[in-house]
Structure formats: C-alpha cells, structure tokens
Amino acid sequence: MADVNRGNRPLSPHLSVYRPQLTSITSILTRITGTALLLAALLTVWWFLAAASSPEYFAVADGLITSWLGDLIMTLSAWALWYHALAGLRHLVWDSGRGLDVEAAEKSGVAIIVLSIVLTILTVLIV
Questions:
Q1: What pTM does this model have?
Q2: Lower Cβ count inside 10 Å, N or C end of the chain?
Q3: Which pLDDT belongs to residue 17?
Q4: Are 73 and 43 in contact (CB under 8 A)?
C-alpha cells in the first residue's frame, strides 16, 4: 500500500544541526593535511625538475618557492607534516585499544593540535 503521508514526514537533520566535535574536526584535518602534503610534494618535485632542466626554468620555480607565497606554502606544509604524523601516532595508539574514551580522545586531539603548532614553529626557527 502506498504511503500517503510521505510528504509530511520530517527530513533527516542536516549537518548544520550538529555541533562540530573536536574528534570530528581532527579527523577532517587529517584528511585535509594528507591531501595538502601531496600537493606540497608535487611542488617540491617541480622545483627539483626545474633545477635539473635549465637555469632559466629553475629561476622561475625558485622565484615562486622563495617568494612570500612559497614561504607560506612551505610553512603550512611543515605544519601539515607535523599534524599528519602526530595524528597517525594517535591512531596507532587507538589501534591498540587505548585512549578511545571521549575524554582521552579530546585531550589527545588538543595535544596534537598544540604540539603540531609548537613543532612547526621550532622547525621554522631552526631551518
């Protein structure tokens, strides 16, 4: 028999109904940083290929990488690398069955965000 009240039933709640949680944000950031690292790696490979091609082509690539935009991209890439590595370690801990309760997951989420920022600043200052 056909459901005549189909149009009167409520729709599923949209994402805007839910409050973002730290664990979901860190999960999304892990995926974003993984993709961003691929793009940064391609930019670095392009720089190496330009160095192997010709001095003129290398000047173009080096000009981009050493510009303020290149510095910003490389700094954000350093942060992405630290964040992605720390998030990977967090998942290894979770795979062992530890730190899965909500309180521990949120503490480790804050820890990887803060630690990735601190390690990025140290990397930029040292390099």
A1: 0.82
A2: N
A3: 72
A4: yes
Q: Tokens for 127?
A: 């390099």
- The angle formed by the CA atoms of residues 114, 95 and 76, to the nearest 5 degrees, is 30
- Angstrom CA distances, 39 to 9, 21, 77, 83, stand at 45, 27, 9, 16
Q: How far apart are CA 10 and CA 37, in angstroms?
A: 41
**Which domains are seen in the chain, by residue range?**
21-126 (1.20.1300.10)
**pLDDT tens readout for residues 73-115:** 999 999 999 999 999 999 999 999 999 999 999 999 999 999 9
* DSSP sequence for 52-63: HH-HHHHHHHHH
**Angle at Cα 63 formed by Cα 61 and Cα 67, nearest 5°?**
125
Closest CA to 25 of 115, 88, 119, 109: 109
